[in-house]
Amino acid sequence: MARLTERIAIFAPLQTMICWLVRPTTERRARLCEDYVPRERQLTTPHPQWFDLLLWGSLREAAIERQDLYATDEFQRIYFDALRLVNWSYQPLDGQVTDPQTGHVD
Questions:
Q1: Cα dihedral 14, 106, 6, 33 sign
Q2: Which residue from 5, 14, 60, 88 has the least number of CB within 10 angstroms?
Q3: How far apart are CA 98 and CA 9, in angstroms?
Q4: What is the pLDDT of residue 80?
Q5: pLDDT, tens digit, 9 for 90 and up, residues 41-69
């Protein structure tokens, strides 16, 4: 149960971030936790798209500043393996909550 809780704790804010990245509205931005609000460097400096999924704003800034170090397959593998989402034993949509009346994903 602890691993499921850990995964949901990571997946829920990540899902909110992905929704904002796909359709960046003011309402969706307001739902982002403070660390997920895009930093200035993130908005102005070209960088690999997956950097936007890094959980901490300070890590996103460091990765964008030092792309020579962080924009590698090795860092990407280590980072996402550490999140323990690789062996998610549920369906991908099991971590989402859909409003039954509107059909919107929360």
A1: positive
A2: 5
A3: 17
A4: 82
A5: 999 999 999 999 898 899 999 999 999 99
